[in-house]
Design goal:
The mean pLDDT is 83. This protein has 4 helices and 6 strands. By secondary structure, the chain is α+β, with helices and mostly antiparallel strands.
Length: 142
């Protein structure tokens, strides 16, 4: 199976556990699922990424990760974060000419196939519509 997502973090300051660096669970990509609530709370196998400022840390979209440990040094954590997804997960053609009246009564899956649930087709990208980003990440893992 090919990876569907990859995330890159450019460390603008030193990545250490004390500085609140991103934490990952090595090998978790093999699970092909999100962690359970218990796994999130207990963080089994979690490690802090460590690297000097200017480095890039990246992982497969299936790797369990979190925003970082509580920062215990002065200052704020500064990182440039971007996630890339395969184009195959999105329609290529535009069906914008089909209005909401046309979609009325059609199954939700039709909206997905026509790109109406495409969170990337907005100026805000994946953070524009709440649950669309996690939903697309789950689709990518199935």
């Amino acid at each position: 199976m090919h990876n569907q997502l990859v995330t890159f973090c450019w460390a603008c300051d030193e990545f250490t556990e004390a500085a609140g660096s991103t934490r990952v669970v090595p090998g978790s990509h093999r699970e092909r699922r999100h962690p359970s609530e218990r796994e999130v709370a207990e963080e089994p196998g979690v490690v802090a990424t460590e690297c000097p400022a200017g480095s890039i840390v990246f992982w497969d979209g299936s790797t369990w990760h979190s925003g970082g440990a509580p920062r215990t040094v002065d200052g704020e954590r500064v990182v440039l974060h971007i996630t890339f997804g395969r184009m195959a997960m999105r329609p290529v053609e535009s069906y914008d000419f089909l209005d909401e009246d046309w979609l009325e009564g059609k199954p939700y899956e039709m909206r997905v196939l026509l790109g109406r649930e495409d969170f990337l087709a907005t100026p805000q990208g994946g953070f524009a519509h709440g649950m669309k980003l996690p939903r697309a990440m789950n689709w990518a893992k199935s």
